[in-house]
Amino acid sequence: MTEIPSTSTLDHIVFLSPPGTLGETRKKFVEYGFDVISGGVHIDGLTENLLVVIQDGVYLELIAFTHPIKHYPEGSEERSRRESHIWASKLPGWIDYAFLGTSPTVSKIINSRAREEGSGVRYSAEVPGGRETPAGRLLKWLITGPDPMSKVEGAASNGSLPFFCGDVTPREWRVGVPTGHAGHPNGVTEVAHLTILIPTKDLDEFERQLTSVIGHTPKVGPHDTRTWSLSTTTESRPPHLILRTPQDREEERYIRGRKGCIYKVAFQLTRPEGGLLSI
Is the pTM of this model over 0.90? Predict the structure, then answer.
């Protein structure tokens, strides 16, 4: 029997900054105690990024649009591409997350599973992507994400369901290799979990959709919590994806207008006192 490629390997988590403020975001994450390295400009020229590589193989992509929409002439092709970008209407903060595309046909694997389960998920066919590093190296990958024409319109536009990034050039070119030290200055070596908030009325539907994508059912916990165990590219402890409903007014305010969204990312600390760093 042919082994089905994994669809649950956490690759990276995306943090958006307003256009022109990537330097300020670098400073913020350095203050959090992370080592931040340069990424580059994406092939479409619309976005640029910085990277925070965690020892477990997951990385944080600190991203910003290179220019605000008004920079591009009205009616121009560049203006159209900028306005139609999947993250064009996102509020700053954690906006999306990616799983590793371990097969060039991840979309077919998920779509087949979703049809059997009746979850309504449909992923678009893979399209090429890439960026050029500051050193001039051209990186290439294949991207697939929720089909905006499918039933999961809200998820596709709000980062509740992951997109997939499958490398054409070696992954270490894109990610870099953790330096082998005990972690970042803050003691972080692993992603512990990321939490997605969802309105109560959408919880059951999003649970079914995520199950079709990830490939296994979650553990059900108190307070409408659903938890999936993920994997990484290393032999680290598995990070977890937590789906739950808002628990207080602050969380209710956070998701207002966002539908489903990443609320917090927690990192494991390896200092003697242990604990978590939550951002």
Answer: yes
